[in-house]
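Q: Entry one of two.
A:
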Amino acid sequence: MNEQSDNGLTRIQRRNREIILEGALTAFSVSGFRGATIDQIAGEAGLSKPNVLYYFASKDEIHKTLLTTLLDMWLAPLSDIDPEGEPLQEVLDYVAAKLRMSRQYPRESRLFAYEILRGAPHLTEILGGRLRQTVEDAVEIFQGWMQSGQLRTVEPHHLIFSIWSMTQHYADFDVQVRAVLGQGHDPFSEAQEFLDDLYRRLLAP
């Protein structure tokens, strides 16, 4: 049965697009945007070059689609913050979610970081639009909690920036972290304990 989704793609077409994006993630992670080629992406995906180009017109389109999908994933935990939840626990849960994503999706984190370092040519409109609005919505929640005395008052934008930095570091600089810690350490488990204590001390009223 060749069922179609809401966007008009069949199940097989959706699966092939996902396979191509997964292959592209590997190719971009190994060679960067400039170094990766359609041939390399096709090889990683196990498809022919014409098949890849049937779904995506160019390497640029593949890269932009992949980054947009990644951004949706990155923003989900921030969007999930519940204004009716227990404030400190909501923040700690967000920190834990971001650290968990760094552990589970290190290639994705590094690809996103690389795009930002390049000046975000594929994400400029999104960063100033959807990303900014999602952050502002969270900032409004945090400010409400701070004004009511449920969280210690800090600058909420920089609170979010610090969480991004403190969690994504373990993906983007994984080799450095493991080299410094040496064998016998689980960086993510140790980081979770440290960050939970750090933000609890910072934000507890």
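Q: Entry two of two.
A:
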Amino acid sequence: MLARWLPGTSVEAEHSWGLVATTVLEVTCAGARFIVKAGGDDDHGIRRELDAHANWLRPWTDRGRAPALVHGDVDAKLLVTRYLPGQLVLGSEHADDPRLYRQAGELLALLHAQFVVTDDDHERRENEKALAWLRRPHRIAAHTVRRLRAEITSWPTPSASLVPTHGDWQPRNWLVHEGVLSVIDFGRAALRPAYTDFGRLAARDFRRDPRLEAAFLDGYGTDPREPDAWHRNRVREAIGTAAWAYRVGDEAFEAQGHRMIAGALRDVDVP
């Protein structure tokens, strides 16, 4: 299929993370550069990416701030986008630059502002997902699991306002080129509450440097983190991080998940 789409393709580099069965290649064809992404048997991210490209990404692609889709096939779990120049922000000298976090806030606001829908069942579904993670193999302490289960089952399940979200909004999915931030990787894109896109940043980058949070909020324009809903999201995000990272063998990310769990529960203990 790729040979039909891009005959004579030459592979220039591989950008796969190596944690899951997803291959990401930088290729050239007829003098143009592309990114090719192929999902494994259990992959659901390619469908999400293609849905995002079809429905939600124009506020970014029209500005050249996200890669434009060239080809895609849901059944083959294969997509091709135009190459977007830039350096990954994660691990670079740009990772602590408030100016980029302000741009990240501005870009996220464009995505979220497209529309909003009300979902009366969102909170219940998310609670069930968190409880399901706790039933799978993980290294969360047994007494912590009991406490998490007790808390989750005590929560109310109010209706939620959902918007298009990226789902993994953090520096590992940002590129910077000549001072301009752009966005990649839409494999977790879905309708969720806006505050869920703050979760990865709050767990790591905002804790590292409050200036980054201030700049991000300045770019975004508001702070959607209503305290009770935000706490529920923090707990669910922490559980998912620790359990998923254990499953794929990412010990550093797993440790972050355990810190997130401890932090969320510590906040409950503060009078």
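A: Comment on entry two: The chain has two domains: 2-83, 88-269. The mean pLDDT is 95.
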